[in-house]
Specification:
Bound molecules: zinc ion
Largest sheet: 3 strands, antiparallel
Distance between the termini: 29 Å
Number of strands: 3
Structural class: alpha+beta
Radius of gyration: 10 Å
Strand order of the largest sheet: 2-1-3
Strand content: 5-15%
Shape: globular
Number of helices: 2
Order of helices and strands: HHEEE
Number of domains: 1
Helix content: 25-40%
Oligomer: single chain
Length: 56
């Protein structure tokens, strides 16, 4: 996934990366552990969310 590796998931849609990186995106959200309280996105890596909060 290269250039997206360190990029916040929250920014993918804004920057039109989602379509290109849909496979990676699925992998990151399928067993989500955290929620971004700003954007409402979920991810299994809190580092990729801009305001991560753990899911219960
Ligand atoms: Zn966010």
């Amino acid at each position: 996934m290269g250039k997206l590796k360190e990029k916040k998931l929250c920014k993918w849609v804004k920057d039109d990366d989602l379509e290109e990186a849909l496979k990676d995106y699925k992998r990151l959200v399928v067993s989500a552990t955290h929620l971004c309280t700003k954007c409402g996105r979920v991810c299994n890596d809190k580092k990729l969310l801009c305001r991560a909060e753990k899911l219960d």
